[in-house]
Amino acid sequence: MPVSPTFDAKALRDRFNPDGSPLRRMQMCMLEMVSELDRVCRKYDIPYFLYGGTLLGAMRHDGFIPWDDDLDVGLLRPDYLRLMKVLPAELPEHIALQTNDTDPNYFYFFAKLRNRRSLLEEPSPYDRVFRERGVFIDIFPFERQRMWTHLLGEPLQAHTFKIFRTATNLPRAMRRIRTITWVNRHLTFPVLRGISRLTRGRTLTYDYGIPFHIVYDEKDIFPLTTHLFEGIPLSVPGNSHGMLSKQFGDYMRLPDLDRVGGDHVLRLEFFD
């Protein structure tokens, strides 16, 4: 079992994300969105879980890692598809669901919730063509599959990022990207998914179209439990300790605080 943290939580907050700071305001936007997601998932009995650095923050800090500027939620693909159907009608007007269906230029294969009362410019250039560009949380689908099918599919969508980065004519590049994304979504990835099901693939990793991977053991995730995150009970894997230990090692130990920081903010504005 994890040991109790030995760091000074107040000193970390004062240094990285004091109340009223841009980062803390961003974290509170993300907290509102994950609270809405949790409400909808509870209403429709859709299981989800915090994972990655968000789960690490929950277990080590009972909330955000003080310097963190993102929030990640995972679901099994069938639950993800159910969530995508019910979310649009459930969200308040200032929170938008961003997917291939709601934003024509959004070529990611996972969803985001976006806060429309903000503008977030990221260091990477991809978001500049998206319709929604507010503070976000990521919603990732996970699927049981053959690992080789996922590895085969990764470069097929990763190629769209290269097209974007090297584009000299962005409108033309986006037409190519939209075409490739459509073909992958409706033809290529369903074929890979079918092969994986026929061969009884059981490796749990990101859904097809997400051009990177991490492998989790379902026994670490289910059954789910809850943990307080910034004072709100959110859904977490049943064996969060085992899951985090495999991914991060001694995750209760703080990193070098002089070398930490967020990765997602180049410019941030709030409109309220």
Summarize the structure.
This protein is of the alpha+beta class and 272 residues long.
List the helices and strands and how they pair.
Layout: H1 9-16, H2 22-43, E1 49-50, H3 52-61, E2 72-76, H4 77-90, E3 95-98, E4 111-115, E5 118-121, E6 136-145, H5 147-165, H6 170-198, E7 203-206, H7 218-221, E8 225-229, E9 232-236, H8 240-248, E10 267-270
Question: Could you characterize what this model shows?
Answer:
The protein is α+β, with helices and mostly antiparallel strands. The protein has a domain at 9-143 and 207-257: Beta Polymerase, domain 2 (2-Layer Sandwich). The protein is 42% helix and 18% strand. It is built from eight helices and ten strands. Strand 8 and strand 9 form a beta hairpin. The model has no long low-confidence stretch (mean pLDDT 96).
Characteristic terms for this protein:
272 residues, alpha+beta, Beta Polymerase, domain 2, six-stranded mixed beta sheet, two-stranded antiparallel sheet, 8 helices, 42% helix, globular
